[in-house]
Structures are given as C-alpha cells and as structure tokens.
DNA sequence: GCCCGACTGGGTCAACCGTCCCAGTTCTCT
DNA sequence: AGAGAACTGGGACGGTTGACCCAGTCGGGC
C-alpha cells in the first residue's frame, strides 16, 4: 500500500486522463480506463474526485495551460513579417504533426465542454486564452518588423486562431502535409497583408530604419 | 400497427437521429433516444439497421448532402470580389446562426467519424465535398469579377473551408456575432487579395473593362 | 498507546447500452 | 386458401458505466 496525498493522486489521474483522451477520445475516457492508465483502483478515483465531470473540468484546464505553454511565441526571427508569421504557423504545425491525437483531443474537449452543463465557461476561457496568445504573437511580430495592424487586433487574433483550428481539422481528416503547409503559408501571407509600416513621428538622433525597407525585404 | 417498408423506416430513423444528435450530441444519440424521437420500437431499429454504426454512417452521408445543398453558391451579386466573398461568408453565417446546433453537430460528427474504425473515409469525403464547394465558389466569384487566382485553387479552397470552420468554432464558443461578422469580412478581404485581373490576350472589338477598375471598386 | 482523520482497494449497485430473441401480424404470390 | 417473406413490438441478455459502500491500514497529534 503506497500512500499518496489526495492532491498528488488527483494530478496523476488528470495526467492519465490526458493520455486516455488522446488515445481513445472523450467517450473512451471512462473512469475505469483512466484509473487503469494511472495504476490505481476505482475507489481512488472517487476518493480524489467527487465526479467524473470534476476530473474532466480539471483536465480541460490542465491541457489548455499546457497548450499555451507549448505554443508561447518565440522571438521573431523572420526576415519579413510574412516569414515570421509563417514560422509561427509552422512551429504549430510541427507540434500538431508530432502528436496529432493531442490536437484532436483539444478540439473534442471543446465540443464536450460546450455539451456539458457547467463546463461551458471552460470552453470560453480556452478560446480567450488562444486569442490572447494570438494577440501576443501579432504584437510581437509587428514590433519586430516595425509595422502596425490595419485591422482591429481582436479581429486578426480571431482569424489567426480560426485559421489554425480550421487547417488543423482539415489535416486531421486528410493528412495532406503539403497542402496544410501551403495553407499555413497562405494564411501567413493573408495576415501579413493587413500590416503597414509605422511612420516615425519625428526625426531622432538614432539611425532610423527607412520606411521602404519593408518592401525591399518582401 | 402501421406497416412501413424497411427503406422508409431507415429514412425516418436517420431523420430522427439528425435531430437527436443536434440536440444532445453524438454521445446522446443512443438507439433508444433515436427510436423515441422516431416514434418506433427498439426492435424496429435493428430490423432497419444491422448496427448503430451503420445508422451513423448513413447519418453522416445524409447531413453532408444536406449541408452541401443548403450552401450551394448563389450567383455572385457583389459589386466587388471582396463583396461577393463576404456575402458568401455571411450567407453561411446566417445559416449557422439560424441553427447553431446543426453546425456543432457537423463538427462533432467529423470527430466521431475519425474516431470510429470504418468511418474515417466518411470524414474524408465530407471534407473533399466542402473543398469542392469552396472551389466552385471561388471559380464562380473569379468569373463574375474577371479575375484569376494568384495561388493554387486547392490551397485557397482549403483556406476558405478552414476559415469557415475556425470562425464557426469561435462563434459556437463565445456567441460574439459582431466579432464573427468582422472576422468573416476580414476573411473575405484576405482571399480577395489573392486575385488579379485577367489580362485580355489581344485587343478585341468589344469594349473591354479597364485593368484599373478592380482597384477603383475596392 | 490511543484516537481520529486520511487513505486504500475490493466489491456492489442501479441504470443504461447495443444487440438479440421470438411470437404475432400483415402482405404478396401462387 | 396456404405458404413464405416482410414487418412489428415487447422483452431479455450480457456487458459497461459512474457512483457508492465499507472494512482495513496508515500516519500524525496528543
């Protein structure tokens, strides 16, 4: 008998549930499958959680946090804005290809949350977090390339997340990597076209970047 | 005892299943829920279908066909390409807002098909059909506005479907109609920017549309 | 050492599920 | 009219599910 504090057992059960959902989908993540994966008894499940839905809520919160950490934007390295955006999309795509079942699970969990009374707010929070991440990416890219966005950033962020989700679904269905990569490149080009150079307000003592350099590099 | 031929009973069961999935999701579409909705006995279910999966396969085929019919592109009426594309997106958005649970069900069925051995090909066929519809829309819009696409059409079609799916999910989660409409407008603008006027091969006796008229109208 | 709370794990419960069984009814064909 | 196929519908089956039960063990505090 190895004793674990309840909090530790909860963590292990949630980690196990992440793996089970990824492998079998939400419907396959029964309490028995989860405890089997965690190497525990069924009673331990109910000792640690009052219900399966409580575990699912915590599962959603956990996987969203992990996703945000994994996809935190890196310092922009592209020579052009388009390059930077494309690199961001391709970084996500590498992440998707490395573990397709994970992204499929994210999408399934969204639908599950929307369908489960009491969990709707988690789906909302999930998508707010994605929008924040997209906003951060857009701001970072704009700053690195000396541009500003010609559309309201919430719209651009929504569109960026939509493109990501939509191309993900298409890829999960057809596994056409070339087409997905091309679509991500097209997505990057689309968004890049809503940028314009930031005009310098006044001449400064610093050597300023010429306004036409954006055109020259694209 | 009202006698029905098996084919009629199958149709009624599928129609009932469409309603049940829309209301309760795939997990809630049990054989008992479906027959209750159809006003039949459970034995009639198994008389008409050899298994629940057989009914689900037919359900997917049916709802995809209905979706394609509902979203068949209309004659382009926009004054500019951007307008035409935006109108197409907004027509879809009206369709979504009129029955959100229907589009949510479509997405859920995709995931269900991907998760169910033997049904994967239905998900693929679903997305091929969407791409064909998008391709038709793009061709129709290009012809109406005298432009051609500067990106391969499969890429543009994939992106158009991705934008549709992605904005749908975002709206299902947050029900922010203004943001969704703005995102659809931005999506239309994005795609419109991958068009260029079709050059006339040779001067003709017909009055030709001036090449700069596209810029003037946008 | 004792007590109490935290923890463990085997077992059980009622409800639900997809599938199957089977007797009865109806319809069509000969 | 009779036979056979198509159809009807109530019930049963074995399996699965989330949740609960409960006796036993362990650890910490007094």
Automatic annotation (TrEMBL), chains A, B:
Pfam families: TetR_C_6, TetR_N. GO terms for molecular function: DNA-binding transcription factor activity; transcription cis-regulatory region binding. Keywords: DNA-binding, Repressor, Transcription, Transcription regulation. InterPro entries: BetI_C, Homeodomain-like_sf, HTH-type_TetR-like_transc_reg, HTH_TetR, Tet_transcr_reg_TetR-rel_C_sf. It comes from the Bacteria. Coiled coil: none annotated. Residues 7-67 form the HTH tetR-type domain. PROSITE patterns: HTH_TETR_2. Residues 30-49 bind DNA. This is Regulatory TetR family protein. It comes from Compostimonas suwonensis.
């Amino acid at each position: 008998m190895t004793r674990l504090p309840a909090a530790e057992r909860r963590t292990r059960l949630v980690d196990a549930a992440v793996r089970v959902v990824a492998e079998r989908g939400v419907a396959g993540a029964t309490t028995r499958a989860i405890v089997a994966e965690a190497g525990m008894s069924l009673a331990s499940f109910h000792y640690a959680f009052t219900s399966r839905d409580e575990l699912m809520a915590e599962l959603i919160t956990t996987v969203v946090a992990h996703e945000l950490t994994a996809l935190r934007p890196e310092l922009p390295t592209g020579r052009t804005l388009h390059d930077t955006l494309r690199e961001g999309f391709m970084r996500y795509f590498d992440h998707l290809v490395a573990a397709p079942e994970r992204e499929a699970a994210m999408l399934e969990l969204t639908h599950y949350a929307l369908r489960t009374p009491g969990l709707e707010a988690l789906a909302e929070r999930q998508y707010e977090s994605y929008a924040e991440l997209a906003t951060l990416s857009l701001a970072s890219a704009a700053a690195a390339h000396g541009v500003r966005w010609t559309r309201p950033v919430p719209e651009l962020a929504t569109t960026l997340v939509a493109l990501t989700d939509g191309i993900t679904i298409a890829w999960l269905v057809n596994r056409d990597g070339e087409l997905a990569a091309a679509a991500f490149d097209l997505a990057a080009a689309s968004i890049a076209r809503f940028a314009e150079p930031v005009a310098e307000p006044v001449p400064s003592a610093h050597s300023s970047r010429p306004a036409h350099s954006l055109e020259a590099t694209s």
